[in-house]
Amino acid sequence: MMDGSPAKNQADSLRPFHIVVWGATGFVGKLVCEHLARDYQGEGIQWALAGRNKSKLEAVREEISAIDPSLKTLDILLGDIKDEASLDALVSQTQVLLATAGPFARLATPLVAACVRNGTHYCDITGEIPWVRRMIQEHHEEAERKGVAVVHCCGYDSVPSDLGAFYMATHMKQMGKKCASVTTLVGPAKGTFSGGTLASLFGAFFEEPAEDRKAVADPYCLDPPNSRRGHDKADFWGVGYNRPTGKFTMPFLMQPVNTRIVRRSNALLGHAYGEEFRYSEAMEAPFVVAMLGALALFWAFLLFSIRPLHGLYRRLLPKVPGPSKELQRKGYWTHTLVAESQEEEGVAPAVVLGRVCGQRDPGYWETSRFLLEAGLCLALQKQDLEKSGLRRGGVLTPASAMGSRLIARLKRAGVTFEVQHNNSREE
């Protein structure tokens, strides 16, 4: 159990900032700042830029002041991940720290520790499951005791998957049924990856110690110790067919991240989705494309597993920092959600289709907006979250920390969550 939340709320109210954006000079960090400048003018949100390089942070401040002139005097906080005292001084000034700079295993470990020490909520956009597992082992108990929310994977990995599963399981419960499974089908989508994103994925999949890589192969590797295990098996890397939608599928590269986050959400919420709940995801594709895609991923994983060649692979990663504003605006993404109820005697399982989608580039524009809304949810809706029955402290997930409150914020930001059942649509 956590310490008394009223005391923490009082301490939070004395901090000068609701949000501090760490890594504000990076591509995603700048986008977070632009969202704040453009969409939250005059809202009374107190925030600051943070990082190591003052001149680069001043340049970002100059850029965003073109959107909102009042930001010309926006505060800048300096810190260094190698200087514990500087991080303590920085994070103790804010209710929530948003971390945007990866690879997180290399650059964010001291930030998480500082936030837990100082009672500061933390959100990031990592997809590095071995590192998330270590943060759970090192910080969950203390963060839970202090009522500090450490929320990893608040970007495209894994917000649509995590909140989508939460949304569908909640709908099943409202129908009076127990949810047996949710399958996420990714696509169609249009977006890009930068070299930095690919480097983070490469490191998480291939450069972590063998012991850690073996541990995260377990579908339930992020679940609390001794919690009930469901029936999910190893990730599926072949060609599949989803009968309710009539779609062929191929492997989705981020399934090892998203599936484990969804399962941790269910476990942290007391198996609210169901004790036997199963979750999987794949990309929808025509049969030939699915075959070729599965083969391409097989050979890519085989080649990337040759450790002596890792230096060469890193040099070959693209150096492009991210997509242009035009490409971000032309991006889009769709997740089709297939939920199935548990079998009941004499009654066929109900199958419910849902959808989560957005009209911007998922890897950058949407990722930055997801992260921002998660941070604002923690900072501005404390009392609402306390009454929600969700988890208030620990190393959490977007669904277990914020659930329907974050869904509501994302809907207002333009993300669609909808359920289609018996050809009727419910918003």
TrEMBL record:
Cellular-component GO terms for this entry: lipid droplet; mitochondrion; plasma membrane
Membrane-crossing segments per the record: 287-306
Gene3D superfamilies in the record: NAD(P)-binding Rossmann-like Domain
GO terms for biological process, alphabetical: glycolipid biosynthetic process
UniProt KW keywords: Membrane, Transmembrane, Transmembrane helix
Coiled-coil ranges (or none): none
Keyword Membrane appears in the UniProt entry: yes
Stretches assigned to the Saccharopine dehydrogenase NADP binding domain: 19-151
Family: Belongs to the saccharopine dehydrogenase family.
Record protein name field: Saccharopine dehydrogenase NADP binding domain-containing protein
Organism from which the protein derives: [Myrmecia] bisecta
